[in-house]
């Protein structure tokens, strides 16, 4: 039996049990969301031991050096110790500047950073981990560049029964405080690698947030090749920022916005393609040389993984496909 020391208690780990599952089993309220190494909500500090390489490789070297690791990926082979992190030690304090509906399901959340010098450097399209006043931590993609705009823009969708989103949509107000950690993720525009290649971006729902960040960044850096952005919803009212994207397309002839909806709608201003994003895109790109494209896929995990496979089979190079599946916590209802 392996022992996990936590606040003067000796907890017994089951064979192959993660530190997260052991702590939860013993009633410790450790935040977590994905259990997949993605959301970074389950950060703990290894005490009197070294966490496994597997559990630490996901986080920034500066945090690794201070003993931090991901509890959902840590399966100790020998006795170990863990403590919960003091977020104020290393997270950035933000306050809500505004909450604006982008459609009936999505809020634009603008955040001010209490001490702008403390803000971590990131590229638009990467994601951060936000912890709300109740200690609930979730991952959200960043739609803008703090270095340019001096605030952080997130797009967050309402989720029925969701803990974080219930707080955000029902209780949160301008001035409320959040802790932010980051950045994580490889969905961003890299001018050294991407500047001379066409870009293909596709997302569903709030998958638009990181894609918009990447498009804005690429245009700001005067990207020279075509940029195709596909955004899908069931109906036109599930799309958002349509006017901004249409204006951007008018201003930049190499930027092409492709709204896609599944259900037909009489909307002459939008003129969306009819069908699922993945169907429309694969058809549009049937004759394109996909090996040249830099590809970014964000949103629902089934959509991201399915389209990744299709594009790879159609000639895209796997090292040029960047994905952010918005993995959610799995909740088994009582
Ligand atoms: C890399 C990454 C980037 C992301 N970026 C974004 C983004 O930019 N925008 C965005 O909106 N989201 C994003 N997400 C998703 C986000 O992190 C959260 O998962 C999402 O907001 C839901 O969080 P929640 O706390 O509201 O739901 P949770 O409390 O985590 O609930 C998870 C699921 O369980 C269901 N559930 C919970 N309780 C019950 C119950 N009692 N009965 C039945 N079902 C239940 C909920 O309906 C929900 O579907 C991202 C995720 C990842 C991993
Ligand atoms: S990274 Fe551990 S729960 Fe998401």
List keywords for this structure.
Rossmann fold, alpha/beta, binds flavin-adenine dinucleotide, Elongation Factor Tu (Ef-tu), domain 3, 17 strands, binds FE2/S2 (inorganic) cluster, 6-stranded parallel β-sheet, 6-stranded antiparallel β-sheet
Overview of this structure, please?
- By secondary structure, the protein is an alpha/beta fold.
- It folds into three domains: 2-85, Ubiquitin-like (UB roll), CATH 3.10.20; 90-184, Translation factors (Elongation Factor Tu (Ef-tu), domain 3); 191-325, Nucleotide-binding domain of ferredoxin-NADP reductase (FNR) module (Rossmann fold, 3-Layer(aba) Sandwich).
- It is 24% helix and 29% strand.
- It has helices at 19-25, 53-56, 61-65, 87-90, 146-149, 163-170, 191-194, 208-220, 242-251, 277-284, 301-313, and strands at 2-6, 9-13, 43-46, 68-70, 80-83, 92-101, 106-113, 127-131, 137-141, 152-157, 177-184, 199-204, 227-233, 255-261, 273-274, 294-299, 321-325.
- A six-stranded antiparallel beta sheet has the order 9-8-11-6-7-10. A six-stranded parallel beta sheet has the order 15-14-13-12-16-17, sandwiched between helices. The protein has a five-stranded mixed beta sheet with strand order 2-1-5-3-4.
- The mean pLDDT is 94.
- Bound molecules: flavin-adenine dinucleotide and FE2/S2 (inorganic) cluster.
- The site of flavin-adenine dinucleotide has 28 residues, from β9, β10 and α6.
């Amino acid at each position: 039996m392996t022992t996990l020391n936590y606040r003067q208690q000796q907890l017994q780990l089951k064979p192959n049990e993660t530190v997260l599952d052991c702590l939860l089993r013993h009633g410790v309220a450790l935040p977590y969301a994905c259990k997949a190494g993605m959301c970074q909500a389950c950060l703990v500090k290894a005490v009197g031991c070294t966490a496994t390489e597997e559990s630490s490789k996901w986080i920034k070297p500066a945090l690794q050096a201070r003993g931090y690791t991901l509890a959902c990926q840590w399966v100790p082979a020998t006795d170990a110790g863990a403590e919960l992190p003091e977020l104020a030690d290393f997270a950035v304090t933000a306050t809500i500047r505004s909450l604006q509906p982008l459609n009936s399901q999505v809020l634009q959340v603008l955040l001010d950073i209490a001490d702008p010098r403390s803000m971590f450097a990131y590229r638009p399209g990467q994601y951060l981990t936000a912890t709300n006043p109740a200690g609930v931590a979730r991952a959200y993609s960043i739609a803008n560049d703090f270095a340019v705009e001096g605030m952080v823009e997130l797009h967050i969708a309402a989720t029925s029964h969701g803990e974080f989103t219930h707080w955000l949509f029902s209780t949160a107000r301008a001035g409320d405080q959040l802790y932010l950690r980051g950045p994580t993720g490889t969905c961003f525009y890299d001018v050294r690698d991407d500047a001379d290649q066409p870009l293909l971006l596709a997302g569903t729902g709030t998958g638009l947030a990181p894609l918009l960040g990447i498009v804005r960044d690429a245009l700001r850096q005067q990207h020279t090749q075509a940029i195709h952005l596909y955004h899908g919803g069931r109906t036109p009212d599930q799309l958002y920022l349509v006017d901004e994207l249409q204006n951007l397309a008018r201003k930049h002839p190499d930027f092409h916005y492709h709204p896609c909806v599944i259900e037909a709608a009489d909307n002459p201003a939008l003129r969306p393609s009819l069908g699922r994003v993945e169907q429309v895109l694969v058809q549009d790109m049937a004759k394109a040389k996909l090996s040249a494209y830099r590809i970014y896929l964000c949103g629902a995990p089934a959509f991201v993984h399915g389209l990744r496979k299709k594009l790879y089979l159609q000639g895209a190079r796997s090292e040029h496909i960047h994905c952010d599946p918005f993995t959610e916590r799995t909740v088994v209802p009582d």
